[in-house]
Design goal:
The complex is a heterodimer of chains A (170) and B (154). Chain A has 170 residues and is α+β, with helices and mostly antiparallel strands. Helices cover 32% and strands 34% of the residues of chain A. Chain A is built from 5 helices and 8 strands; from the N terminus they run E-H-H-E-E-E-E-E-H-E-E-H-H. In chain A, strand 2 and strand 3 (51-55) form a beta hairpin. Chain B has a 7-stranded antiparallel beta sheet. In chain B, strand 3 and strand 4 (55-66) form a beta hairpin. The two termini of chain B are 26 Å apart. Classes of the chains: A alpha+beta (170), B alpha+beta (154).
Amino acid sequence: MDIAKFKPATVYTIYIASTPEKVWEALTSAEFSKQYFFGNTVEIEQKVGGRYIVRQPDGSLHISGEVAECDPPRKLTFTFNVDWPDLIEKLGPTLVSYEIEPAGDAVRLTMTEWHDRPLSDDILEGGRQGWPAILSSLKSVLETGKPLQVKMGPPARMLAALKELGIKVP
Amino acid sequence: MSKPEFVYVTYIETTPEKLWQALTSSEFSKAYWFGTELRSDWRVGSPFALVMDGTTSDVGEILEYDRPRRLSYTFQHVLKEEFRNEQPTKVVFTLEPHGKLVKLTLTHEGFDGVPELLNAISNGWPAILSSLKSLLETGNALAVPMSALGTKGL
């Protein structure tokens, strides 16, 4: 997969009292992800070319992708395509990378969302709203053992912008 | 092109009142803000200063104090040669209840000068606010020294 054409659209950095290995496990394990990712489950084959899948609590496919870089416990890059009809045709693929670095006695996790074309702030609002909630909860799970109860749906301005592009939203 | 600013959102298991106290108390800030004390009487129009080990690093003026919803102050770095002649920028915190949590939004805006100032600010805030979240949720701030920010912070 050629990831050189992607440009960063959203960056979110969070520091966690944990180890790089534990942060890696939280990002890649189904059990962990269920707690902090709005009840969704991450399934990932940890090798370049492997599958990346996010399932909704009812088991249905929500996001699918392919692993582009896999260097545990430092870097993970994968495509992250929401399974809504026509979305990938209209917006192109989404790429997500996680970088995990030691910082003092803690760990710096940097999530970057990349796209291969310019997208409006309305469209990007989905990730800009979602990632802080997901990663704030991941931090709480690792530090306190308990996830946050963050309840939110997709942002209205993103749904309106997708509808305008002719993308069917649930 | 949107104007240069830094926005950071985090969700914290606490109350707006406790978060407000952490944002305005020297005792708290020393724990989560690289050992920095916040000095102000927090009245609108009053001076504001960040003091580390007796040295003032940043100064400003309180613009808004709407406890426990919205806090804003101007912000000017006064230590480093490359930043001390920049125009003051503006920091805004908004605190919103979100179920049993508080959604904290930081907006730091007004960067018309050197891009390095925005870069330095953007490196510092995630560490400060991550540490604040840890302190409120676990009782312990993060042990992340400024030298561990990877790139240059303020």
